[in-house]
Amino acid sequence: MSRDLHDLREAALADALAEATGATRDDITPRAAAALLGAVHRILFQRIQDLTLAGQGDDRISAAVIAEAERAFGLLEPSLGDYAAA
């Protein structure tokens, strides 16, 4: 079920990116960008679940996920940093 929600969010993001950039229907770029961003979101979501199930407190979870989000999204910065910028 959570995979379905992630897929729906990713499709909505791809649609929004396509609209924002004026991409044509056959342009793979918005879907690829949404998939990359969605992958990081899924990984972080799973990390929160794992830490919660391991009994970690909110402060520990927050600190871990903030640091990991910065690293993970930082990997995407060179490719997506200027994409669909307002």
* Low-pLDDT regions: none
Radius of gyration: 15 Å
This entry's quaternary arrangement is: single chain
Percentage of residues assigned to helices: over 70%
Major sheet summary line: none
- Strand segment tally: 0
List the secondary-structure elements in sequence, H or E.
Answer: HHH
Return the average pLDDT rounded to an integer: 94
Distance between the termini: 33 Å
The outline comes out as elongated
Q: How many H/I helices?
A: 3
Protein model, in words:
The chain has 86 residues and is an all-alpha fold. 79% of the residues lie in helices and 0% in strands. The chain contains 3 helices and no strands. It has helices at residues 2-21, 29-53, 58-80. Helix 1 packs antiparallel against helix 2 (29-53). It is elongated, with a radius of gyration of 15 Å. The termini are far apart. The mean pLDDT is 94.
What topology does this entry show?
Blueprint: H1 2-21, H2 29-53, H3 58-80
Helix pairs in contact: 1-2, 2-3
Sum this structure up briefly.
This protein has 86 residues and is mostly helical. Helix content is 79%, strand content 0%.
